[in-house]
Write the structure tokens for this entry.
Amino acid sequence: MPNDKKIPQLYSGERQHENFCRMEDFYHTATLKAASHIRPFPKGNDSVLPDTYRFEGETRKLSDLIQATDTSALLVLQDGKIRYEQYFLTGGPQVRWTSWSVAKSFISALVGIAIDEGIISSEDDAISNYFEALKGSAYDGVSIKHVLQMSSGARWNEDYSDPTSDVNRLGLVMAGIQGLDEFVHAIQPEVPPGTVCRYNSADTQALGMLLRGATGRNLTDYMQEKLIEPLGMESPGYWLTDKNGIELVLAGLNLTARDFAKIGELFRNNGQVDGKRIVSEQWVRKSVAASEPHLVPGNVIVGGHKFGFGYGYQWWVPEGSEGEYSAIGVYNQFVYVHPGNRAVIVKLSANPNYGLSEKESDNKDEENMAMLQAISNNL
């Protein structure tokens, strides 16, 4: 349960590293238990990070970016083995850090599992067929596929620097003034579905409603069975919830760096763990591909600008990708996967300048990607 401690003021320039490691102090939560049989990553040969990386035609120091973005954890896996692991500030091997939108990629995996099991018939189904509160909203009649691709056509503004934007209105939900289902139901359509990729955190919340309706279960229970247990998560985690106990699936997952890495390893291994199928290979391929023109790098709209990454099913695809993809959250959270280099890299951070503007110089999403690519290519 939350207490009377001051709720973090996001996108304000305040340093957040002392908050992102203890979000349970501020919000309602639902607990995820460690797996019954944990699967710790074995230790591999130690790897040395490169000193520099290239970005915007310049050679920059990796240590400077780690410091500037208030990095708490940097974990590098190759072939499923830990090659590098370092914690800073308030981070640590057992510290549960907030995911922000890295959570979205976990939800995508759960949708794929539900389709594999036949609980959801097809991603071409209307999402509103599965949850009553989606009827009469922007999601009424919209295909699950278009919601997965952030192409629902819903009216939405994800500008973190605008205090009146839709994404910042979620603060009312987390303050207990409004429920998540009510919030999503009120969203209205703007453009035809499947025509524009406008990054919209409410799309992911609608996917959470889809899963609750299809399974008849809460997300915490479903994820415990379908991901936590088979992936062998090592530590307890939790979801942030609204006042009604509904999980904030668009951003509210809190796990350790090692357990965040497990979703990357699952996808790097095409949906399998130790040869056991968890989600179909077809779903993995669809999830990490910018498969239509409006999804390719440079066409995806975030807030008021076009972004340099493409989009799949709740996964980002870098420009000029060599088969790489990444789960990405605000404040520079990353689960980056490079199948060709057999690499998964987790970076957890609290970049104090994030959301002060829409400029890359503040948010550093693309610069962090350049750094992660340099680390991967150095293995």
